[in-house]
Specification:
Layout: H1 3-34, H2 38-43, H3 45-71, E1 91-96, E2 102-107, E3 115-117, E4 124-128, H4 133-138, E5 146-151, E6 154-163
Parallel strand pairs: 2-4
Antiparallel strand pairs: 1-2, 1-6, 3-4, 5-6
Helix pairs in contact: 1-3
Length: 164
């Protein structure tokens, strides 16, 4: 799987998230400025405060997404042999021991929760970071290892079936 394509997708999605946050910020600022008459603004200062707070939050969200996208500029993970230990940049497939449900993810330094499309639109990969429960569980492990992770309050056992 071409990891450069995955990184390009991740950067594009982070940039899209930043644009959406900036748009939300601009909408909140415009509403705070233009959404009410001066008398209404005085009467409902709480609404103006909430809009200002929303604008600041959206601005921080945009800054974080852009910083994450920028941090990927030098991230160039290579292909890993199937016997390699898992590190940042690995593509990992796991299978639930009880349900045989499989999941594929890309262990990246940023971008947690983003969904990427596999080559040619084949399948989906979740982005997982090393600070997430599953990221921490698989770091340093190999194909064939079993990891226990608590998901939504329940302990799940997954076997690592592929590392690339």
């Amino acid at each position: 799987m071409n990891k450069a394509e995955l990184i390009a997708q991740l950067v594009a999605q982070l940039q899209t998230s930043a644009r959406a946050a900036l748009s939300g910020r601009d909408a909140a600022v415009a509403e705070a400025r233009d959404g009410a008459t001066p008398d209404e603004k005085r009467e409902d200062a709480r609404a103006a405060h909430q809009l200002a707070s929303l604008g600041r939050s959206q601005s921080r969200r945009a800054q974080q997404a852009l910083a994450e996208a920028d941090s990927l500029a030098t991230f160039r993970p290579g292909a890993l042999p199937p016997t390699a230990t898992i590190g940042v940049g690995a593509i990992v497939e796991i299978e639930d021991a009880e349900t045989s449900e499989g999941r594929t993810f890309f262990l990246a330094p940023v971008g947690a929760g983003v969904t990427l499309t596999g080559p040619g639109g084949d399948g989906h990969l979740s982005v997982v970071t090393p600070v997430s429960p599953i990221g921490r569980a698989v770091l340093g492990r190999r194909t064939g290892d079993v990891v226990d992770v608590t998901v939504e309050g329940s302990l799940r056992e997954w076997q690592i079936t592929y590392v690339g």
